[in-house]
Every structure is written in C-alpha cells, then in structure tokens.
Specification:
The chain is an alpha+beta fold and 291 residues long. Helix content is 27%, strand content 21%. Strands 1-6-7-5 form a 4-stranded antiparallel beta sheet, covered by helices on one side. The protein has a 4-stranded antiparallel beta sheet with strand order 2-3-4-8, with helices on one face.
Amino acid sequence: MPEVPEVEALREFLDGQLVGKEIVRVLPLTINVLKTYDPPLSALEGATVTAIARHGKYLDIVARDAGDGELHLALHLARAGWLRWKDSFPATPPRPGKGPLALRVVLGEGDGFDLTEAGTTKRLAVHLVRDPADVPGIARLGPDPLDDSFDRAAFARLLAGENRQIKGALRDQRLIAGIGNAYSDEILHAAKMSPFKPVKNLSEDEISTLYEALRGTLREAVERSRGVAAGRLKAEKKSGLRVHGRTGESCPVCGDTIRQVSFSDSSLQYCPTCQTGGKPLADRRLSRLLK
C-alpha cells in the first residue's frame, strides 16, 4: 500500500503536471470506486486545478469550477491501487468493468491519468467533495508525521495513555496519519524495538529514539522517492526497504536472518538481533513473544 513517502512523491509529481490545467472529463469505470454523489463528477468538467494536497495516504486534487467554487477530488489508493500518468489517450473510451482500470481523468491538453486497481478486492476510493473534511477517512486522521509541528513533544503526547503494542499504534491513522505496514516495520527496525513492545513501557529515552527513527525513516524515503516517475514509485519503495518484505534475507545492519510473523490478512518482518535481543517472535495467532 502506498504510504506517506509515496503519496507525497505523487503529490509533488501531480503538482507539476496538473496545476493550472483544465479538467475535460472524469470517467468512473468501476461501479464501486466513487464513494460520493453530490456534487457529481460532472461538476469537475471545465474546472481548473489549483493545487495538489495530501492528507495522510489521501491525495487531494483541488480545483475551481466555473462559478469559482472549490472542489476536492480525494483519492485513496488502498492496497492494490495506483495512479498511472498518460501523455495521451486512445480515441475510443474504455469499456466500464473491464480489467484493472477504475477511473480516468482527461485534461484539456489531452493528457491526464488513470487510476487502476489489481486483484479482486476492490478498496480504491474516490470522493468528490467541497471540503476534504467531508471525507470520513480524512476527518478522522491524526497529525501528519512530516509536518513541522510534529515534534518530539507532540509525539510523546500522542503516546500518553496508549496501551497498545508499538506496531499497532504506529499504523493507527487516527493517531498518526500515513504510516502503514511497511514503514512501521522500517521505523521499528531503525529504532531497534520489538513490534510487540507495549507503548506504555517505553522510557523517555525510548520515546526519543522512536521519534527520531520515525522522522528519519520517512524523510529518507521521501527524498529517495522525490523526482521518481509515478510508474516507478512502487519499485523504488521496495528497493529502499531494509526489513519489510525481506523474510529470509540478511539484515543489512547485523547480518542476522530477517524473520516474519503472519496474521490473517498481513504480516510483519523484523530482525531478531537488532530488535528482540536475538529471540524470535512467535506467531501471534498461537502465542506471545518467546521468552
């Protein structure tokens, strides 16, 4: 799933491609991609893109219609969705419901983008609203970890009173916006912490270490993704990950074998030497951390 670094890179890419251009046509091509109906997608036709914003994992294409009203096309790519830029489109419109194509946006210059989603589980979501806060997922978001106001003190306040394990807390969009499965693994590896350590057991020094790992990991990933073409961002993300998705490989820090814990719909990866004192974690479906 695209997380803060990839969505921020897409935001920067689209800022250079879309701002100042007129939207000519928006075509929804799967029945479940559009989550709102008022205003209708046709309200975007003739509107001019004025800005590209990001709210956690949501992209927000901001446009002004003919009546000078502001519209927000909010996109959530979910696990298998992606944005594909097109310099031109075929003359014949695509057939709805065929293949991975979910939505097409065509600009006045003939270019634009497609939203695609692989697989059978369709979670890609498109909302057209006049205020991004009208999107429930955006309204519930916690602070953005890349924002200048997200300092160590703000992070500590978020963790105060938390009873969950660190991995779950980092992934909670209501607590911190934009961190998912992959970068939570990377942050915890950089911080040398077990994903199952309870937040309430963190010392002040450990909170500082976790904060620095969080900011450093995300900023490094943003810099790595900056300037990469939209079509290559997923590959760039994978190439920069140290532990996530690398079960059985050697840890780049200590050389130990990276291990995995599986859940019903996801998995996490970690390094025993770096994060758990050399002790392997048991499958959480069966038992707790081996002692």
